[in-house]
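Hello, quick one for you while I still have it in my head. No rush at all, and the record is pasted right below.
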Amino acid sequence: MATYDPVSTAKALAESYVYARQTQVETNTSKAQGKVTALTSLQTALSTFTTALNTLSAKGSVVAQTATVSRSTAASASVSGTASAGSYSFAVSQLATAQQSLYSMEDLGLALDTTFPQDTTMVVTAVGGAGYIQVDLAAADENNDGKLSVTEIARALNQASDGKVTASVVTQNGKQQLLLNAGGTGLENAFQLHMVSSSGADAAAQQLATDWAATVAGLQNGTITAMPAAGGASIGGKGTQLSLAQDAVFKLGGDTGVEMRQASNTYTGIDGLSVTFQEVTTSPVTITVAKDDAATKSNMQSFVDAYNTLVKAMDKLTAAGNAEGGVAAGALNGDSGVRTLRNQLNSLLRTSVGGVSLTDYGISAQRDGTIALDADRFAKKVAANPDALTSLLGQTNSLEYKRTGVLGSLQTYINTWSNASTGFLKSRQDGLQKQLTQYSKDQDNIDRLYAQAYQRYLTQFTTLANLETTMGNTTSLLDSLFSSSSSSS
């Protein structure tokens, strides 16, 4: 009987044969995979920082403003950093409203659920849309039963109008009627319904649209004073106007100010200020725009916090570690690329625009690479020169030539790292993936060498074990024979 196991012996010897190669591949694979994970974390950190830059840029200015409305029932207001401080008075004499019209089947010259004129097209002229909406009644008959329901007409109109006019079904005293709503407020979204022959529908619709545009223009300039009927001449002017289209009319500067007319109740004619009128006023409503020091500080602090979060993320990835303390080094420890990234970001923070830099506004570098905001110094400098801070920070933009200031410079540089197609991180990741692919091939080769060595050793030691067993049996036989011979003598 063999004194050893051929299987375990072959396994041990085969493992020893590939040990050096196996250790090297495992080490290389672990390092490469660790860098892939680290670079992905860096990509996330850069993306988060870029989002913070874009959020700050979208405010228009880090210098925040607040808008106070003298009567909240009369209007509401929102303001961005580009608004100028001051008071703005509005006297509102008319609110913008949207047209809403109701039509019975009889108004349309149709009878509910009965046969209808096959050569008939419904046209809704709507300047706010593409000029007109056109529905062939034959095509509106979805189930092809030769009859039309209000539901079928409403559905066909909605499919054709692309939201410029919306149609719905209203039941009044058990009778279904067609309700049309304009897609927006104001005269520019007014509409009128017509019925024309399908054989010449295109030409007729275009002419009706031209005529309606002239009518709307007359309503806007005051040469036409009465809103036309909900239905055109082709249906005898029928239909009920539930709500007339009208523009908002107000005076900027109070009762004696400049009169303005527009389709919307929201006025955005003052840079950075948006005012929404909510009621007709008996006395002017005043919007007061003033600086919001607390929000301004918060905006600047958000930038500082976002930058520090990025720095700390890079610190974690490049940490030296502590072997004695059992703390592993970061996967990007000693990485010259990340060191360059950090140094360049720090340099961009020191950018000067118009002779001022972030240092002038109380932002200083700390020993650990983070930055800090001196609130008092910041407040004093902003009070003295708010516009300079706005210019210094600048703005981000998807178009590089529109980027300005510190924010724009940071965005442009970070993009050289994070761009999904051409960025440095993409190039690094691609290189690491090629390495991992090669290491996988190396592992396949090691597995093949291991299998060959294992089979070779197994064959050798199985043969040796069999020989040992045979020799043992022979020895036992000889011992037995010699023992018997000795006994006989």
